[in-house]
Structure formats: C-alpha cells, structure tokens
Design brief:
Blueprint lengths: L2 H10 L7 E4 L6 H8 L3 E6 L2 H4 L20 H7 L6 E6 L13 E6 L10 E3 L20 E3 L2 H15 E14 L14 E10 L4 E10 L20 H38 L1
Parallel strand pairs: 1-2, 1-4, 2-3, 4-7
Antiparallel strand pairs: 5-6, 7-9, 8-9
Helix pairs in contact: 1-2
Amino acid sequence: MDAQLSLIMANQAQVVPGDLIFDPFVGSGSLLISAAYFGAYVFGCDIDFMMLHGKTRPTRKQVRHIPRQNESVCVNFEQYGLRSRYIDVLVADSSVPLWRDGLVLDAIITDPPYGIREATEKVGAKSTKPCSENSDDSVHYPSKVDYSLPDILSDLMNFAARHLKLGGRLVYWIPVFRSEYCADELPRHSCFSLISNSEQVLSTHTSRRLLTYEKISHPSSSAVKERVVLAESVSFRDKFFNHAEETRHMKRKKKMENFEKYQMKLALQDKEQR
C-alpha cells in the first residue's frame, strides 16, 4: 500500500494515541505502520505465512535473484522506530476468527485481497479425503479453497460489528468496474453508517473505493450474520481478466484493420502512378 494512502486510511479511522487497531489482511503491514505512527497499538493476521515472514518472491524484477534476509512485518516496524507500538501478527484465517468475544477494538483498517495480485483463499477442502494416521507427521499444511469477495466483505463487517466499540470506524477498499459502479450496491450493515466514499482511479475501466463506516449500534445476541453485499454472478477477478483479454483482442483487431487500410492506400497510390 502506498504510504500516503496508508496515512489517509489511518486518518479516516480517526486514530489517536493509545487506540487498539486491527488489520485482518495484514500483508506487509503498511496500514498498521501508519496507525502506529499516529500512536496506536496495532496487531493483525493474515493467511499467508510467506508474506508475514518476508519469504515471498520480490515483485521487483531487478532484485528477484537476491535472497531475502531479515524481512518481516516486525522488522518493518523496527525500521520506522515503531517497535513499541507493535503487538504481533498471526497466521490465521479471517473467515474463522479466533478472537474472544470480549475483544474491543477502536478501529479496523484493511485492504482485502481482490484475487488479482493476491489470492483470495480460506482454509477448506474441495474434496473429502481420509486423514493421515502417520504419527510422524509433525507439520500440517491445510488445504485452501476460494474465498469470494462478497464472502470476505460479509465476514469483515460482521466481525467488525461484534468487536468494534460504538463510534469505532471500519475503513477498507473495494474494487469496482467504473461503468458498473452504483452507490446503492455498496456493502451495507445494520450496525454501521457509511460516512465516506472516495474513489481512486486505477485504469480507464477500473477503480477502487475507499469506504469508511462508523459503528452506530451493537448486534443483538441472537443476531445472525448479515449478508452485506449480493453474491456475484461473475467475480471481479474473472471480469478483470476477461476484460483484459477482450481489450487485447480488440487492439489486435484494430491494428490489423489499420494495416489493411494502409496496404489498400499503398495499392491505390501505386495504381495512380501507373
């Protein structure tokens, strides 16, 4: 996340010294660093072990051949002199929160995965297989299944409804196709009021919205999980890549048409000269 955008999100969350801030999709920890800069105590979780411990492949082509050393979320805080504000990060599945009911947060700031650069996954099994009875298996690597964006947003807002204080803020991004955007279709929850909706343009066709919610009521003890956004018939990821393929096809077609027109023009000029 860009540093300026991270600071904007912390500002939107109205972070003040002593606040307790949580990010359920930590990644490299940039959002938590911004919150810690404002004096908050921060913690979070992520399902990606490799990301939290700085073991993923570098995105910059120039340094991909260089082994990563001493990189992690904690080290990032030490570099900014904010280690005292860092509580911890856990490898955990956000679809199955592990926190006690008594946990009360001042704000949640996060950037959920869209399925473009980061995978949208949760722990699960596509098929039922017998468990290994080998007692020598000391490490378990759980299988993962797709975690749709509507499910991510529903789980996020229901979690926030349970654990945010009254007046606490939930700040996060969602991706949209600009031609299909409709404010009435933004995520809604009975415990929250949408107080800010900003756009960051990513391309001619896509953008993402920075949404800021404020908690206005507690959920009832018997309340069921709310579905905050309708299920997608086609996921944002599929639409994104299908649209990219269509765009490439249109460019190739237009290039071919221009080439044919150029050939015809040369043929006419040659005919006139004769």
